[in-house]
Write a structure and sequence with these properties.
By secondary structure, this protein is of the alpha/beta class. Among the domains are: 231 residues, 3-Layer(aba) Sandwich (Rossmann fold), CATH 3.40.50.620; 56 residues; 88 residues, Arc Repressor Mutant, subunit A. The chain is 47% helix and 10% strand. Helix 11 links the parallel strand 9 and strand 10. Helix 13 crosses helix 14 and helix 20 runs antiparallel to helix 24.
Length: 542
């Protein structure tokens, strides 16, 4: 099914052919990648009848936000491809849940139980949360819940099922036949010491159930078996089929591409040096290497890569506690080839930027619409924004009013925008609730007020006097002009220092909103009282 052309008036009578013409010229990265993928089949469509997109997931820990981003970005490219091509598509989300658990994650309970099951496949490790049959099943369920929250259309594949059901058997037999060629690719990438014990096959011990990292004594291509000694020196011979053996993760990448006929897969920059290995093994096993897209990594607040085992960075649930799903999608759309810091303080900015793009969309020309992130977030069915107050402003309002619920904020909002309501402005209503939660959890604990300097005190006293004489109503622009004039007349250079003073003395923060707009929302009388408290030192002692 083709995505809708779009809700903006510009697209109302535009045909799909015209849309395709614009898309073929678009500089938006989903369309650029879609066009590159289409070249793969410019001579003839795929024999399998569809283009296959894949995303991979290692369920060694709770799913993190980067996993979500990979599926979202792949989906955006998939939808862009569907606009420029008539070839059907599929998306597989593949979980490597047959991998042995190498270490116990830091952010799970019952660690002693998990330690007793180290090196067993994740689908054989008991669930430390006691909710599912295994730790792998638990993490798979978490991932699927996250993906379903965002309405992704995908097919879920489990490596355990893939290996055990025989779906992978033909490729595994071929790997045994072409073992030497696979090993040649792998050994060239390994240190000499590792070369002595490496095998692309990892047997699963028939008794202990552990994934073994042992050298092969024999790989019998005719019988499709491997022979090895376990850690106790006992010799075993196992078929490579039927879930008795799995592939090391690098060969597994390429083998899976060959087995499934994967056309597109993206992964993080940390995988990029392995791309020739993945591609080489795919081709050895009779496949065509897929089109790749390498994205930069997500970083935590101190610049370290986020990790499932460490549990650093934000989770999807944490983001959605303070903002909408669309704001997270907007964050993921931005510059995928640039490393991004993923911490609490990016959330307000993403919310407000997302709504700025929503407001811009209806007035844009078709080419600009396809370059607008909201087109890709909403698959062309772009809604109107009902946010008449920025999220950053709501946070500051929650701060000065001590709001414990969104109803408190609505009391101020409706005085500023009388026609606004929860029913007519659902975005704003949801954002008010998010703002109260964000303020109480991440702003209130860190608020620090300071006393004004002598020059700042004079400027604040001037602003106070002008507000007491103000009769211009709640016009945000006029109030901003007045605030701006006070700063200029008191010699603040750069003028930014004046606004920093307002934020630090009156709001207890280093950054803040357009102050004229804040006064209009909070109220002139309330702002007068706030400035008086800032001058008296009452805010510092509160």
């Amino acid at each position: 099914m083709k995505p809708a052309i779009g809700a903006g008036a510009i697209w109302t009578d535009t045909t799909m052919a015209e849309l395709r013409d614009v898309a073929m010229q678009s500089k938006a990265w989903p369309f650029e990648e879609a066009r590159a993928l289409l070249k793969r089949y410019e001579k003839a469509p795929p024999e399998k009848g569809y283009v296959l997109f894949e995303t991979g997931y290692g369920p060694s820990g709770l799913p993190h936000i980067g996993t979500f981003g990979e599926v979202l970005r792949t989906t955006m490219i998939r939808r862009a491809f569907e606009i420029i091509s008539d070839i059907p598509t599929r998306l597989i989300c593949f979980s490597d849940d047959l991998d042995g658990m190498r270490k116990v994650p830091d952010n799970v309970p019952n660690r002693d139980m998990l330690l007793a099951n180290v090196q067993k496949p994740l689908t054989s490790v008991p669930d430390p949360f006691g909710e599912f049959e295994s730790f792998g099943d638990h993490n798979n369920a978490m991932l699927r819940r996250f993906l379903d929250t965002f309405g992704f259309e995908y097919e879920f594949y489990s490596a355990t099922e893939f290996y055990n059901s025989g779906q992978f058997d033909d490729t595994l037999r071929l790997a045994a036949e072409r073992y030497d060629a696979i090993m040649k690719v792998m050994l060239a990438s390994l240190r000499e010491e590792r070369q002595q014990t490496y095998s692309c096959f990892l047997p699963i011990h028939p008794e202990t159930g552990r994934v073994l990292y042992v050298p092969m004594k024999e790989v019998n291509a005719k019988d499709g078996t491997i022979t090895f000694d376990d850690e106790d020196g006992r010799e075993w011979t196992l078929p490579v089929t039927g879930g008795n053996v799995k592939l090391q993760w690098k060969p597994d990448f390429g083998a899976r591409w060959a087995a499934l006929g994967v056309d597109f897969e993206m992964y993080g920059k940390d995988h990029s040096t392995n791309t020739p290995i993945y591609d080489g093994i795919c081709e050895i096993l009779g496949g065509q290497k897929p089109h790749h897209f390498t994205y930069e990594l997500f970083l935590d607040e101190i610049g370290q890569k986020i990790s499932k085992s460490k549990g650093n960075g934000l989770t999807i649930d944490e983001w959605l506690t303070y903002a909408s799903t669309e704001s997270l999608s907007y964050f993921m759309y931005q510059k995928p080839k640039t490393a991004k810091r993923l911490h609490w303080d990016v959330i307000p900015k993403m919310v407000d930027e997302y709504h700025q793009q929503l407001r811009a969309y209806p007035t844009q020309e078709p080419a600009a619409q396809l370059n607008n992130p909201v087109y890709h977030i909403h698959r062309g069915n772009v809604p109107a924004s009902t946010m008449v107050v920025p999220f950053a402003m709501l946070l500051n309002l929650a701060s000065v009013s001590g709001a414990e619920d969104k109803e408190t904020l609505w009391g101020f909002i409706q005085r500023y925008a009388p026609d606004a309501s929860a029913a007519a402005n659902p975005d704003l209503d949801a954002a008010a609730g998010f703002a109260v939660a964000y303020y109480n959890d991440h702003v209130k604990p860190t608020k620090t007020y300071r006393a004004p300097t002598d020059n700042e005190r004079k400027a604040l006293e001037d602003l106070l006097a002008r507000l007491k004489a103000w009769d211009g109503g709640l016009d945000a622009e006029e109030l901003q002009t007045m605030v701006f004039a006070v700063g200029k007349e008191h010699g603040f250079e750069p003028l930014r220092d004046w606004f920093t003073c307002l934020y630090e003395v009156l709001l207890g923060a280093s950054q803040g909103p357009r102050f004229g707009g804040f006064i209009a929302l909070y109220g002139v009388d309330e702002s007068i009282q706030l400035i008086e408290e800032g001058l008296s030192g009452a805010l510092q002692t509160a």
